[in-house]
């Protein structure tokens, strides 16, 4: 059945020494947890620290993801990183469509559809992020917004592609704000999302795709959020930067 996943998005934090230190601490704690095969732990350091992260997590349960990748395979795109480059340093997963990429770097659903194709085309996995703004929720259009984001970026894919897709519902109003969706709000949206997949692709795909919740998940609220039946884990920002906090969240899964 579907995997439980705790993924840490480090964003633009941790230089090389700090990244090594955090990985060292996490490795020690994760080893002690003796996690089962149905549970995955992923960290997403910045591009420049990916290679070190891959090398240092080789014999551990911790997997390494990129926070973004370019949609083109190669070429004159100064400052960008390709899927081939990720693969060549041993990275198998890329986060796509994080709200900070959408907001500060103008990433649209159409562009994200291209990125999804490039990532899956290379045989890598995508953690696809989406979620509504506060005004969408206030105007009660959050379901429609989420549905559009998913349809535009993912629903051109065939059934089999979804073995390499993880979904991350991240209400923008809850990211880095200390404000969390209530476990009931998370469950309501996750069930809605799963039902979109039932309608488009059938029960098999819907029941095998992991849907993570992201938005101010902390050690003190993780357990309750993760206890909801359609919440398969979390994408964690701030609380993934400290060994203790991230370990507590992994324990909660
Ligand atoms: C995120 O950036 O994906 C996130 C969920 O951040 P935070 O946990 O800090 O809200």
UniProtKB/TrEMBL annotation:
<dbReference type="GO" id="GO:0019563">
    <property type="term" value="P:glycerol catabolic process"/>
</dbReference>
<feature type="active site" description="Electrophile">
    <location>
        <position position="98"/>
    </location>
</feature>
<dbReference type="GO" id="GO:0005829">
    <property type="term" value="C:cytosol"/>
</dbReference>
<comment type="subunit">
    <text>Homodimer.</text>
</comment>
<feature type="binding site">
    <location>
        <begin position="237"/>
        <end position="238"/>
    </location>
    <ligand>
        <name>substrate</name>
    </ligand>
</feature>
<keyword id="KW-0963">Cytoplasm</keyword>
<feature type="binding site">
    <location>
        <begin position="9"/>
        <end position="11"/>
    </location>
    <ligand>
        <name>substrate</name>
    </ligand>
</feature>
<feature type="binding site">
    <location>
        <position position="176"/>
    </location>
    <ligand>
        <name>substrate</name>
    </ligand>
</feature>
<dbReference type="InterPro" id="IPR020861">
    <property type="entry name" value="Triosephosphate_isomerase_AS"/>
</dbReference>
<protein>
    <recommendedName>
        <fullName>Triosephosphate isomerase</fullName>
        <ecNumber>5.3.1.1</ecNumber>
    </recommendedName>
</protein>
<dbReference type="InterPro" id="IPR000652">
    <property type="entry name" value="Triosephosphate_isomerase"/>
</dbReference>
<keyword id="KW-0413">Isomerase</keyword>
<dbReference type="GO" id="GO:0004807">
    <property type="term" value="F:triose-phosphate isomerase activity"/>
</dbReference>
<comment type="pathway">
    <text>Carbohydrate degradation; glycolysis; D-glyceraldehyde 3-phosphate from glycerone phosphate: step 1/1.</text>
</comment>
<feature type="active site" description="Proton acceptor">
    <location>
        <position position="170"/>
    </location>
</feature>
<feature type="coiled-coil region">
    <location>
        <begin position="9"/>
        <end position="36"/>
    </location>
</feature>
<dbReference type="InterPro" id="IPR035990">
    <property type="entry name" value="TIM_sf"/>
</dbReference>
<comment type="pathway">
    <text>Carbohydrate biosynthesis; gluconeogenesis.</text>
</comment>
<dbReference type="GO" id="GO:0046166">
    <property type="term" value="P:glyceraldehyde-3-phosphate biosynthetic process"/>
</dbReference>
<dbReference type="InterPro" id="IPR013785">
    <property type="entry name" value="Aldolase_TIM"/>
</dbReference>
<feature type="binding site">
    <location>
        <position position="216"/>
    </location>
    <ligand>
        <name>substrate</name>
    </ligand>
</feature>
<dbReference type="GO" id="GO:0006096">
    <property type="term" value="P:glycolytic process"/>
</dbReference>
<dbReference type="Pfam" id="PF00121">
    <property type="entry name" value="TIM"/>
</dbReference>
<keyword id="KW-0312">Gluconeogenesis</keyword>
<comment type="function">
    <text>Involved in the gluconeogenesis. Catalyzes stereospecifically the conversion of dihydroxyacetone phosphate (DHAP) to D-glyceraldehyde-3-phosphate (G3P).</text>
</comment>
<dbReference type="InterPro" id="IPR022896">
    <property type="entry name" value="TrioseP_Isoase_bac/euk"/>
</dbReference>
<keyword id="KW-0175">Coiled coil</keyword>
<keyword id="KW-0324">Glycolysis</keyword>
<dbReference type="GO" id="GO:0006094">
    <property type="term" value="P:gluconeogenesis"/>
</dbReference>
<comment type="similarity">
    <text>Belongs to the triosephosphate isomerase family.</text>
</comment>
